Request: fold
Amino acid sequence: MSGKADFPNNWQEVHDADSEDFGSCTFEEFQEMMSLWHLPSSIACVMRVENKDTGKIKEYTYRKVSAATNKMEKLVEDPANVITIMDDTTIHHLMNPTYES
Reply:
């Protein structure tokens, strides 16, 4: 058998859900939950990139910091990119302060 195994993808169900179906939390609660999260030792970081012009969101996972650095250098060239990067200890939210949508 070739290719990847098929896994159910319920994105449409989540997309169509009413916002009241999801609870909210304070920043302090979020920070506490974040402290319980740990990336496996094989993962250096995870990046989530939202392009404000297109509305598209992409996620990248890196095992090597050097590969993540190279990708970050390319991503910051587009001022419409909003980048959230997470490693095992921190989460950073990066955006171009001069970008106007």
